[in-house]
Amino acid sequence: MPAPDLPLVDEGVLADLLASTGDDPAFVRELLETYLAETPEQLEAITAAIGADDAAALVRPAHTLKSSSATLGAMQLSTLARELEMAGRAGGLGPEVRDTAGTAMTTWAGTAAALSAWMSERGS
After folding, report:
1. CATH of domain 24-122
2. Phi and psi for 2 in degrees, rounded to 5?
3. Residue 2 and residue 116: Cα distance in Å, rounded?
4. How many Å separate Cα 10 from the centre of its chain?
5. How many angstroms separate the CA atoms of 110 and 74, rounded?
6. d(C-alpha 24, C-alpha 68), whole Å
7. Is pLDDT above 70 for 124?
8. For residues 46 and 62, is the Cβ–Cβ distance under 8 A?
9. 121: confidence class by pLDDT, cuts 50, 70, 90
10. What is the structure's pLDDT at 74?
11. pTM, entire model
C-alpha cells in the first residue's frame, strides 16, 4: 500500500513539469487531460488481468500507470501501480493484489479530482 506520507498529487512535480515546458500551461493541461482520459483504460486492463488471473497481462498497464502517474505527480497511484507491476512480474496474483487494485481505483478518484482542481486553480 502507498506510504501515508506520499501526497495524492505532488504539486512540486507539477511545478517542475510546468517549468520544464518553458512555463507552457496549455501543454501541461494537454498532458493532464490525456492522463485523465487514459488512466481509466489502464485501470480497466489491470482489473481484467487480475480477473483473468493473468499475471503477464498485468505488467504492461501497471507499468504504464506507474510511469505516467509519477511523471504527473500522482505519487500514491504510482506506488500502487508499481506494486501491481511487481506482482505481475513475480507471477503471483493473490488476494493482496486484488486489494491493491481496489485501493488503486479508490486512489484514482481522489487523484483525478486533485488534478482537475489543480488545472482549474491555474486557469490552465
Report:
1. 1.20.120.160
2. -70, 150
3. 21
4. 12
5. 10
6. 19
7. no
8. yes
9. confident
10. 96
11. 0.92
